[in-house]
Structure formats: structure tokens, C-alpha cells
Amino acid sequence: MNVKSSHGSLEELCDHIRALPRHQLWRWGQAGDLPGDGKRIDAQALQLIADANRWRRGFGFTHYDPALKANARAIAAANAGGFTLNRSADNVVEADKLVALGIAPVVLVLPKGTTKHFTTPAGNHVSVCPATVRDDVTCARCGICQNKDRKAIMGFPAHGSGAAKAHVISLTGLTKSLTKSRRTTPFDDGSVETAKRKTA
User: Fold this and answer.
1) Are 30 and 61 in contact (CB under 8 A)?
2) pLDDT tens digits, residue range 11-65?
3) pLDDT single digits (tens) 150-161
4) Is the model's pLDDT at 7 over the cut of 50?
5) Closest Cα partner for 91 from 7, 192, 187?
6) Neighbouring C-alpha atoms within 13 Å toward the C-beta of 91
7) What pLDDT, in 10s, does the model give residues 147-199?
8) Which 8-state DSSP code applies to residue 196?
């Protein structure tokens, strides 16, 4: 389920999250980022969202810079509290740096059409999002982005009108890194989706 901040106040949004069934998989925001001013996360608002998520399986993505210690603390606290925040990277060099920080799981924008898993210059495994390469998988059925302890970087091939721009962003800094490492790679957020955890 995509929970949007268009529900009114933060309190109303948190009430909406708390009303979700236990173990409900849901995604924060189809587009946009966390509450904040664009540079610094509103840690208090994020904590309220994380608290509302208790017993639920919420996850989201952020481009907020973890080099700001306040952002790093807010992201780490949300993840520790069960609200999984994935730190978004625009290229493999940035993804490797984010993995090295150890604050949050990492996701990566890949060039359009990428379908194969690969290893980054720093040796991190990148798994291509299963929902982008298999017709029988959806975010609602997968849930891997909600797993804060996963080792792999999740890669999302660019699609739609931003694919050309994403291809350029993904390749930034890659050629130089690959030349040094001699590694090979494949390089030459509206709707509501829900899934309840199935119990045996």
C-alpha cells in the first residue's frame, strides 16, 4: 500500500498507518521524499511515522544526505524501529559509498533495460528488482525492499520519461571506476498496492 502525505496532518497520516492490519506491507510515498526541508530530515516527524508503523512492514526511499549526522541518526533510528528506509543512489560509486556507511540498505537507479545482477567496483552485489524483470512478481508480493538487513543493493532499471536522464546519472563516475577495478557490469512513485503477509 502506498501511504501518501495527502491524508492531511501528520497526526492523520499516523492514524492511517496505525489503522493498517498488523504485518501489512506498505510503502512510504510513490514519489517525493521524507518530511524535511530538502536538506535535513524532520527527525521528529519521521519518528512519529516510525512509531505508527509498529507491527507493520513499512518501507521507503530517501535521497537525504547521510553525511549530515542528523540525517544519518534519523535514518538509522527509523530502520532500528522497524520502518525500513532505503538510501537511494544515482550511480554505483555512490552506492558503494552508502553501503560502506552501514546506516541503511541501499537502492540504485540502473540504466533502462538492465536485467542481470552484477558486482560493483567495491565488490557489492547488485540484484535487479524482481518486479521489473518478472511478470509474476509485484512489490506487494516481494517485500525485499522492506528487509533492512539484506546484503544486496537493489537495482531499479529506469523507465518512463526519466529513463534517458537516469541512464546518464547511473553512468556518472562508472567508467573510471570500472577501468581501475577491471570488473564488468551490464553497462555498455499514484496507485495503491497492498499485500497481507500470508500465514500458514
Assistant:
1) no
2) 999 999 999 999 999 999 866 689 999 999 999 999 999 999 999 999 999 999 9
3) 999 999 998 655
4) no
5) 187
6) 17
7) 999 999 999 998 655 444 433 433 333 333 333 333 332 322 322 233 433 33
8) P
Strand order in the sheet with 106-110: 2-3, 25-28, 57-62, 84-89, 106-110, 153-157, 125-128, 118-119
The cell numbers describing 118, all together, are 552484477
Q: Where are the beta strands (DSSP E) in 71-161?
A: 84-89, 106-110, 118-119, 125-128, 153-157
Let me know: does 112 contact 159? Beta carbons within 8 Å.
Answer: yes
95: closest CA among 71, 119, 68? 119
Tell me how far apart the alpha carbons of residues 55 and 8 are, in angstroms, rounded to a whole number. 23
Q: What is the predicted pLDDT for the residue at 171?
A: 39
CB 133 within 8 A of CB 110: no
Helix or strand run (H / E) with residue 48: helix 43-52
Q: What residue has cell string 510513490?
A: 30
Number of Cβ atoms within 10 Å of the Cβ of 45: 17
Q: Parse the chain into domains and list their residue ranges.
A: 1-86, 90-184
